[in-house]
Design the sequence.
């Protein structure tokens, strides 16, 4: 099936079936390759993973869906160069309020980055994770990347270190990664078949030579698989990011999921293609569409049978700061940091995080208490709904409808409430007035939801939501999300049983492309 190639030091790629059967003897984090889900995952807790793994993920907003409501992360842009070209990437484009991988407002030296980390950690004590994710590839800039890690490890040893890479140079740096105690690595893997990969990657730069077409894709996938195996063999947690590109790799990503699981990957994060023409990417200019909300969810659901999926990814900027879903990078420009007196107070950070942990445990307890009542709904099988939630974090319904720039999406049925994604939207309330054009896009973004939970909502948007068949609900203001979702579902099922309403499935929804209009 694969064309013959002739390049040095590269072993022939195994056929896919053989590749999938070549399960690594190490399974990292207790992941099983014998079918069924991994024993750990984005929504897992201490009861379903080893204490060592739980200790690594419990405060990491990217590796734990539960933690992302409470803990923040930051990226520092110290890695400008890249060793591959992806058809969905254009690092030259930037826009205020834009949230997209590879986008940065300013590039930093390792010394500037180290000072920025301390400034952010002192201002946002729940910031627990520092990641290097570009704007190029961290391992195409190894000196800058590892110098930054060295500086941070000396001054702020309580901060977890992460990096995100395309994997091409990964096998060359695994030992160095381990030496800096980097125990979370994300690899972007969009294919395990070069026939597919040649349509995603026009070229790679490897061993001082530019490779193109199927040869480039073959080298890349071999290096990615090798690097993944080397990391998991050392007990380093690996998350795999994949971009869903309809018509190119959407069906193939199920095979990618099986391949990375067999090599001990901890989580799989399938993200929608961002391909707005104004970004200037090859896919954007060629009219390649991204997936709809339901197409993305269907693929994630299909892969979840094999492996736990990350669904709370926000496809962050390479200089993002704050909780997932918010970006406070504008508060920490180099100019502003130069004027700040930075004092790193590890004791205060630790005390604050203890308070956050208490809040988090209260959220978990509230969910368990409500979930016990679901046994009353054993005959509610077949009824399932999506609920959109306006939230500022902390696991609560605590955002005004008009102030929301994203809605978190929960799926609710007789098994309970589960976070399944988020939808970015344009700000509805601008300058104290509702923007009708924005409301139309908000409704399209949550069109597959039966209800939207908000802390508060005005009369006009409430009426338009009702006309669209979406129930605007503000009675759960400032209450826990999952507890509220289960209560709403139980009430809904009661009305169906009483014949007051007829349950109907909703339609599809749009995934927002491009920058926010305002934030």
Sequence:
């Amino acid at each position: 099936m694969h064309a013959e190639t002739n390049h040095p030091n590269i072993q022939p790629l195994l056929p896919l079936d053989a590749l999938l059967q070549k399960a690594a003897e190490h399974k990292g984090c207790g992941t099983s390759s014998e079918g069924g889900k991994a024993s750990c995952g984005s929504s897992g807790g201490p009861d379903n993973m080893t204490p060592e793994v739980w200790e690594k993920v419990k405060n990491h907003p990217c590796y734990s869906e539960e933690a992302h409501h409470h803990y923040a992360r930051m990226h520092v842009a110290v890695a400008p160069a890249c060793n591959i070209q992806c058809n969905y990437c254009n690092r030259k484009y930037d826009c205020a309020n834009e949230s997209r991988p590879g986008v940065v407002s300013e590039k930093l030296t390792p010394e500037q980055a180290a000072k920025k980390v301390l400034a952010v950690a002192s201002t946002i004590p729940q910031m627990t994770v520092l990641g290097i994710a570009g704007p190029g590839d961290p391992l195409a800039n190894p000196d800058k990347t590892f110098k930054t890690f060295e500086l941070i490890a000396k001054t702020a040893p309580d901060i977890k270190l992460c990096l995100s890479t395309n994997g091409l140079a990964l096998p060359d740096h695994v030992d160095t990664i381990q030496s800096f105690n980097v125990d979370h690595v994300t690899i972007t893997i969009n294919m395990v078949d070069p026939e597919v990969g040649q349509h995603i990657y026009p070229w790679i730069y490897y061993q001082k030579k530019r490779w193109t077409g199927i040869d480039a894709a073959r080298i890349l996938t071999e290096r990615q698989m090798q690097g993944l195996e080397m990391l998991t063999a050392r007990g380093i947690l690996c998350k795999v990011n994949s971009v869903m590109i309809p018509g190119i790799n959407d069906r193939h990503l199920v095979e990618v999921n099986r391949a990375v699981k067999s090599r001990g990957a901890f989580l799989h994060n399938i993200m929608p293609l961002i391909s707005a023409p104004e970004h200037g990417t090859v896919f954007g200019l060629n009219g390649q569409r991204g997936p709809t909300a339901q197409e993305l969810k269907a693929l994630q659901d299909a892969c979840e049978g094999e492996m736990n999926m990350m669904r709370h990814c926000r496809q962050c900027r390479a200089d993002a700061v704050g909780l997932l879903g918010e970006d406070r990078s504008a508060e920490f420009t180099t100019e502003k940091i130069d004027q700040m007196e930075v004092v790193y107070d590890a004791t205060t950070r630790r005390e604050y995080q203890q308070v956050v942990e208490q809040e988090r445990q209260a959220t978990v307890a509230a969910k368990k208490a409500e979930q016990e009542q679901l046994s009353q709904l054993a005959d509610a099988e077949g009824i399932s709904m999506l609920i959109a939630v306006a939230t500022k974090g902390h696991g609560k319904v605590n955002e005004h409808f008009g102030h929301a720039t994203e809605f978190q999406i929960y799926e609710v049925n007789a098994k309970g409430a589960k976070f399944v994604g988020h939808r970015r939207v344009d700000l509805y309330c601008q300058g104290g007035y509702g923007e009708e054009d924005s409301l139309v896009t908000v409704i399209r973004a949550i069109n597959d939801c039966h209800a939207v939970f908000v802390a508060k909502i005005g009369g006009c948007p409430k009426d338009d939501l009702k006309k669209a068949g979406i129930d605007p609900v503000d009675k759960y203001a400032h209450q826990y999300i999952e507890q509220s979702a289960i209560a709403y579902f139980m009430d809904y099922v009661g009305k169906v049983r009483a014949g007051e309403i007829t349950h109907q499935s909703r339609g599809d929804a749009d995934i927002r492309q491009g920058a926010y209009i305002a934030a």
User: Anything to note?
Assistant: The first strand starts at residue 72 and ends at 75. The CA atoms of residues 225 and 260 lie 8 Å apart. DSSP finds 15 helices and 17 strands in the chain. The first helix runs from residue 16 to 21.
